[in-house]
Automatic annotation (TrEMBL), chain B:
This is 4Fe-4S ferredoxin. InterPro entries: 4Fe4S_Fe-S-bd, 4Fe4S_Fe_S_CS, Helical_ferredxn. Residues 252-283, 333-361 form the 4Fe-4S ferredoxin-type domain. It comes from the Bacteria. The keyword Iron applies. The keyword Metal-binding applies. It comes from Paractinoplanes durhamensis. Keywords: Iron, Iron-sulfur, Metal-binding.
Length: 250, 379
């Protein structure tokens, strides 16, 4: 059996999700032993030619070039896994979708005419077929290893789509909403982080995007009841996964 | 088992802890953490929530300091004895590849737990779980092993919460069975002490290792009065009618849509419910593929995957999922296991982030049914 190959790709993003792979310190050598890392610029300059068995794709599509490049990557990839809020939901840069990107560009760049950019930031799945999506800003390293391990074993990865509250209760966190009156997006947010923020007494701020069937209207009413302004609630739903929350009706 | 009431001074609790540990038990009990009374392995009796009280409401729970040093004058926190006997995650088995095949081991042998401060609703829930998980031809191994080894020190409730309604579910604030030791806490001018009774030979044996005086009629009647006052203080209740009939008759009620508008399908109610037993399994393997494990974790009928069959999930709407939870708890549980699935602990009311109250929803369904019956002709 030949060793399967892994390629890591970057689009509009902060590199933090790829970094989660490097952050798998204890397991990284094992990953490198079971998969040939054929392309991972954050780790090595060496690039082996495709096709690749597994591609991890970080980042959103924001330029015409990107839109072209992701098609080629799809053609070269056996299994394509998108990683992180940018790749799965357009990321924080999708805030441009409701604004005028040329106006933004003129505020930042001395010569915006050099730029070639799209009016929107869109998830990878809006352009090509995606096999698995890993949510989060950044992704959870345990979930990343779970997907890699599952692909190697030829089984379906465990990537639950229920609320963060499931993980929160199973971890024996004290609910910050009920016991402290702290606003928390956990009830409408997709699990995967292990209820990290409530574990340290903070409300979830929704970085994994919407759970499978989020009741965003009921949650908004609760957040307002807990003292947030309607504007703040809107902003809470419009951070890392704005397009996904919007689709979920918030 | 005859119940002979003894009196145990609060200063004797460390001896109780020692006695349990000497008998091989891992002691678990309530302690304050992060603004709630949580269950944890306790190193000493000093970790008990002395002087803490609790105020609860729908979707609300707050600790406050009491004027006395009572450790159990508070209602149950989000966790129950289920968390100990039917834990959120458990390894069913693990497998290793060997030269000539595969070896498997498991499940792990659990420690023997002594649960201090189990509430009467915990005991009722344990009896329900016994019927669900341990009775019949195929006892569930993890629950059964933990249950077989457990030593229960129950505490009668003297300060029920506003969310409690055990009295309308056939229970009450007094522990009546299913314990090894049961205590009523008294903290007043006469001191901080416990009227204690044994419920099993193991309980009597532990008591014999402690300094227990005869309670005497005065302490006994004070203890009885405190528990009777607790029963009177409970104000919430379920509608006084056959709940299975109510749930069957209300299947098509428009009220389910009203609940679904508020329900977040977050699953908190089933996680905190001391009788919800549903689980799913997950296989994990290390990257080498040489070692694999099967884990079981709590699942919930609020999860879309819970009703997944080929082609999709059956219960897609929030309405259908809330209806499943309530119909199972209060209705079909009777036919399935011969009792109600609800013991009236009120945890699902307090720990629902949206403050959805199962007693109010039952009352609304009951009102809808009465109004339906009152209609002479279909509209
Ligand atoms: S703290 Fe947040 S995530 Fe945890 S149970 Fe409460 S609402 Fe859910
Ligand atoms: S349904 Fe609610 S009140 Fe009844 S036993 Fe479960 S958590 Fe307690
Ligand atoms: S109410 Fe739901 S989670 Fe609880 S036991 Fe029934 S089906 Fe399972
Ligand atoms: S009833 Fe409350 S706790 Fe239960 S799923 Fe709905 S919102 Fe969550």
């Amino acid at each position: 059996m030949t060793t399967p190959t892994l390629a890591v790709w970057k689009f509009a993003s902060c590199d933090g999700c790829q970094l989660s792979l490097l952050d798998c310190e204890d397991e990284l050598l094992e990953v490198a032993g079971r998969l040939r890392i054929a392309r991972f610029l954050e780790a090595t300059r060496q690039v082996l030619p495709g096709p690749y068995d597994v591609s991890l794709v970080e980042g959103s599509i924001t330029t015409p070039d990107d839109a072209e490049r992701i098609r080629k990557i799809r053609e070269m990839s056996g299994t394509l896994v998108t990683i992180g809020a940018c790749a799965t939901a357009g990321g924080i840069q999708a805030l441009r979708n409701h604004a005028d990107v040329t106006e933004f560009a003129s505020m930042i760049y001395p010569r915006p005419d050099y730029l070639s950019t799209l009016a929107t930031s869109t998830p990878i799945a809006a352009h090509v077929d995606v096999d698995y999506e890993l949510h989060g800003c950044p992704v959870d390293r345990r979930q990343l290893l779970e997907v890699i391990g599952a692909l190697l074993a030829g089984r379906k990865p465990n990537i639950p789509a229920h609320s963060v509250c499931f993980e929160c209760k199973q971890r024996h966190n004290v609910c910050v909403v009920v016991a402290h009156g702290t606003p928390c997006l956990g009830p409408v947010t997709r699990a995967g982080c292990g209820a990290l923020c409530p574990a340290v007494g903070r409300g979830c701020y929704g970085c994994f995007g919407p759970a499978e069937t989020p009741n965003t209207a009921a949650e908004a009413a609760l957040l307002i009841g807990a003292g947030m302004s309607a504007d703040d609630v809107h902003r809470a739903y419009r951070t890392f996964n704005s397009a996904a929350w919007e689709e979920a009706g918030s | 088992m005859p119940e002979s009431a003894g009196l145990l001074d609060a200063t004797e609790l460390p001896r109780l802890f020692d006695a349990l540990r000497e008998r091989g038990y891992t002691v678990v009990g309530p302690t304050v953490r992060d603004g709630a009374i949580m269950l944890a392995e306790l190193g000493s009796a000093a970790e008990l929530p002395y002087g803490w009280g609790v105020v609860t409401g729908a979707g609300r729970y707050r600790l406050h300091r009491r004027s006395d040093t009572a450790a159990f004058a508070n209602s149950a926190g989000p966790q129950s004895i289920k968390d100990i006997l039917h834990p959120p995650r458990a390894r069913l088995w693990s497998a290793d590849r060997t030269a000539d095949g595969v070896t498997t081991t498991g499940p792990d042998r659990p420690p023997r737990y002594a649960v201090i401060g189990a509430r009467p609703c915990d005991l009722a829930a344990m009896a329900v779980l016994d019927r669900v998980l341990s009775a019949g031809a195929y006892p569930e191994p993890i629950y059964t092993a933990r249950r077989d080894g457990v030593f229960v020190v129950a505490v009668d409730c003297t300060e029920p919460a506003a969310t409690c309604f055990c009295t309308s579910m056939g229970g009450g604030p007094a522990a009546t069975g299913g314990f090894d030791l049961a205590m009523t806490e008294l903290a007043d001018a006469d001191g901080h002490r416990f009227v204690v009774r044994a419920g099993s030979p193991a309980g009597a044996e532990v008591l014999s290792a402690l300094c227990v005086r005869a309670a005497g009629p005065r302490a006994e009647s004070e203890a009885r009065a405190a528990v009777a006052a607790a029963a009177d203080a409970i104000t919430r209740s379920m509608p006084d009618e056959s709940l299975p009939d109510l749930l069957t008759g209300a299947r098509e009620s428009p009220h389910w849509a009203d609940v679904a508008d508020r329900c977040l399908t977050c699953g908190n109610c089933t996680m905190v419910c001391p009788t919800c037993f549903c689980t799913t399994t997950e296989d994990v393997a290390d990257l080498t593929g040489e070692h694999a494990e099967r884990w079981r974790r709590w699942d919930s009928c609020f999860d879309l995957d819970f009703s997944y069959v080929h082609g999709g999930s059956v219960r897609r709407s929030g309405e259908s999922r809330y209806r499943q939870w309530m119909s199972h708890k209060l209705g079909n549980w009777q036919a399935q296991f011969g009792s109600s699935g609800c013991v009236g602990c009120g945890r699902c009311i307090a720990w629902c982030p949206a403050g959805i109250d199962i007693t109010e929803e039952a009352a609304a369904l009951s009102a809808w049914r009465r109004s339906e019956r009152a209609q002479p002709c279909p509209p």
